[in-house]
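Is this the right way to post structure tokens for a design question? Let me know if I should format differently. Anyway, here goes:
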């Protein structure tokens, strides 16, 4: 590897998409990360200019790498390592709004009461 490239799992960790490097490795091995439309391995070299798609449920990020970093720094330093595409931002905001408007039913414990079952059925469209 040259000086201007870094391992994919290290870059994902340094860019703060994952808390640990092993979590980044698991995500890459699990097919949650695509590089230029291909399914990479954790040691895939990352260079400025490539496009990476990251799926962190329920959101999906499409970013263009602007810098490489092997060390995890501040959030501002991590944000300088990539630029999120405009369609990706719009899709995430749309999904965020949909999730915010979705009905949520929370139960404290045990079997739902008759009233809670009716609310559940209404939310499910029954």
């Amino acid at each position: 590897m040259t000086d201007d490239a870094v391992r994919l799992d290290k870059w994902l960790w340094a860019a703060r998409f994952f808390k640990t490097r092993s979590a980044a490795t698991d995500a890459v091995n699990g097919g949650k990360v695509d590089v230029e439309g291909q399914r990479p391995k954790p040691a895939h070299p990352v260079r400025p200019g490539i496009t990476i798609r990251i799926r962190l449920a329920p959101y999906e990020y499409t970013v263009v790498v602007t810098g490489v970093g092997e060390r995890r720094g501040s959030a501002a330093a991590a944000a300088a390592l990539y630029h999120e595409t405009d369609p990706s931002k719009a899709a995430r905001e749309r999904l965020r709004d949909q999730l915010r408007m979705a009905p949520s039913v929370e139960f404290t414990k045990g079997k739902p009461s008759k009233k809670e079952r009716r609310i559940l059925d209404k939310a499910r469209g029954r």
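Format looks fine. Someone answered above. Worth noting: The longest strand covers residues 59-65. The chain has a mean pLDDT of 91.
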